[in-house]
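Exercise 7. Predict the structure of FlgD Ig-like domain-containing protein from Algoriphagus aquimarinus.
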Amino acid sequence: MVLSDPERNFRVLLSEGVTNAELFILNRQGELIFHAASSEIPIAIPVLTWDGKSNGKWVPTGIYVVDIMLRNSVYGFEEKEVGSLTVLD
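Solution. The predicted structure, encoded as tokens:
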């Protein structure tokens, strides 16, 4: 993602079958710097987005941990996806 460029924000798109989703962004020290959740999951539209800010300020450039929790309450489905995100200035 590129800071201050709304066209390059971090976005999560989901497919059918997910009824709840949560996004956690952590810094290198493991501190939570952003959290978002959604229970309305439209298909092919970004559900969870992050603009690169924490407490109203741009985060420093670097690598961040992305933790996404996906659930379907009807089928008792729960899956956790973990990855990294490079933030550029």
